[in-house]
């Protein structure tokens, strides 16, 4: 599996907080999609689970 770097973790955390502040419950599948998208941008593959 692939690991996220600190900056990528911060981006995901900010996204979770933003969803929460808008009244949405962050879903694990959505967070996984975001993580996979970030990894795809740097061509690092994908994560299998969070």
Automatic annotation (TrEMBL):
Top-level taxon: Eukaryota
Protein's UniProt name: Uncharacterized protein
């Amino acid at each position: 599996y692939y690991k996220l770097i600190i900056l990528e973790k911060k981006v995901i955390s900010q996204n979770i907080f933003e969803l929460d502040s808008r009244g949405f419950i962050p879903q694990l599948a959505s967070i996984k999609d975001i993580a996979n998208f970030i990894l795809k941008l740097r061509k690092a593959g994908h994560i299998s689970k969070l």
